[in-house]
């Protein structure tokens, strides 16, 4: 017991030192330890006793490596819903996800009450085509109950070789019995940006996730809409519904497309000095590695986009980076936010590498909008409320799950369809316009966004 206690004490000191080095890697020297940062000997002794009992009397032999890793994971997941341990597989998958291509079903998920909760299905993936919705709970993967699995274990089971089948048992609050869905895995190539003309003069850009190239892709999409319209746009809809977030630099870049240069986009505040930072609509913040030769991705969009009337569409699946964009554009009075209250994920996760293949994802700060509003557990309240037409308000409130509903969440410190305006020139364009109009009519929130833009046009003329 004494030997084991000394080993664990040494391991604890080693882990603490390693985290400190990563937190202060950019500083000239590691700061001196604070007076209160002493290891709790009594609690460590209790930990050693539990460790010893498991090794001696658990029904099956358990490897030391597994026990230590599970202890680390439990220490992190007990803090908040977003802090976690990344083993070799998890660290690799995190890198793949931000690149925009990975294998699996196309789900953004989290863990709640021991079940996998769907944050958002990604557009044009097996999950979206199967009809899985934000707020669904996955209770069984093939024949394995999810209860008792870690989130990492559940994700590993859902991923696999392309074209292999998997059966998910889904609990949905509006259904009387579980849904059993069989899906076929695929290589998920996330096309994060889609765009089209809703009708003459009014553009639509859908951003499904903030990836490395999202700023460039949105800028190019807007440029294409201007060219297709053959005239400056009268209004633009930026659709961030069910966008679970992604890279902070891309959120700053997308905001910079519509804001004046050097406008404050978001700031972070945490205990460590490194976590106190302000992000502005300047290239060094959204394209830090860009060179003069590679150019500024924001400059790919027409300069008129800085002044075009803008509506941002949001809902309960709008989270993290997409809330940063919504909040920045709302605070600067650059856009009208339409839809329902957003998810409320306003915390910063920093990936701190422990070894070449493992890391921890640790919550280190909170996000604040330019006006000082904390997004955490509150989200962004739209300027114009517009519920989804497919469910009633009561059902929607019952289904909606936000950051504030998650266990261990951080507290907030601040305590009618339109007809096309012009007749298309040829039958092909007429058919395309008709399809776009029909798609808009099916989407009540999008129709409301278009109506808001048209009202803005009337007011501008007056």
UniProtKB/TrEMBL annotation:
The residues forming a coiled coil are: none
Q: Which family does the record claim for this protein? A: Belongs to the peptidase S41A family.
| InterPro entries assigned to the protein according to its UniProt record, in alphabetical order | ClpP/crotonase-like_dom_sf, CtpA/B_N, PDZ, PDZ_6, PDZ_sf, Peptidase_S41A, Tail-specific_protease
Q: Does the keyword Protease apply?
A: yes
Q: Which residues cross the membrane?
A: none
- Composition-biased stretches (Basic and acidic residues): 429-444
Pfam families for this protein: CtpB_N-like, PDZ_6, Peptidase_S41
Q: Which GO terms describe its cellular component?
A: outer membrane-bounded periplasmic space
Q: Name one GO biological process term.
A: signal transduction
Q: What is the lineage of its organism?
A: Bacteria, Pseudomonadati, Pseudomonadota, Betaproteobacteria, Neisseriales
Please state what the protein is called: S41 family peptidase
Q: Could you cite one Gene Ontology molecular function of this protein?
A: serine-type peptidase activity
Does the keyword field hold Magnesium? no
Which UniProt keywords are present, listed alphabetically?
A: Hydrolase, Protease, Serine protease
By its UniProt entry, which CDD domains does this protein fall under?
A: cpPDZ_CPP-like (cd06782), Peptidase_S41_CPP (cd07560)
Q: Give positions of region: Disordered.
A: 409-445
